[in-house]
Design brief:
Blueprint: H1 8-29, H2 31-38, H3 42-46, H4 50-72, H5 77-102, H6 107-130
């Protein structure tokens, strides 16, 4: 497949959508529990290099959106939702589950972190297929 057939605006919007979801998911929805499960304090978060974290996260999320766009090129919105869910749940959440078992992280933290990606990939699937 040729990368020129991809909708690069849709890829950028899909990438940015993960930050919107993250702001809600790791803010008012699960923020306090996520901090507790990681052992983070407010001070820890204030002292983080946010430019490095957000910049690197953008690049990684962009790569994920590009990869998903290749898989979804030419499919319907319904298929985009379905394949986005399968990607987020079947690959990402399950792979994270294996890592979380061996690193002995809590099931609560696994749920918060992995289902963020399930929701993100579903929305990316919608965006990438709606703008083909």
């Amino acid at each position: 497949m040729d990368a020129s057939s991809l909708n690069w605006l849709a890829i950028i919007v899909a990438t940015l959508s993960t930050f919107v979801i993250g702001a809600i998911w790791y803010g008012p929805v699960f923020g306090k529990v996520w901090m507790q499960e990681n052992g983070f304090s407010e001070e820890d978060l204030k002292n983080a290099n946010m430019g490095k974290i957000y910049g690197t996260a953008f690049v990684l999320e962009l790569i994920m959106a590009i990869n998903l766009a290749f898989f979804l090129n030419g499919v319907s919105i319904g298929e985009g939702v379905f394949y986005g869910f399968l990607t987020g749940f079947g690959w990402i959440a399950m792979a994270m589950g294996v890592n979380y078992l061996f690193s002995r992280n809590s099931v609560k933290l696994w749920f918060i972190d992995s289902f963020y990606f399930v929701v993100s990939f579903v929305l990316m699937g919608v965006i990438l297929t709606a703008w083909q």
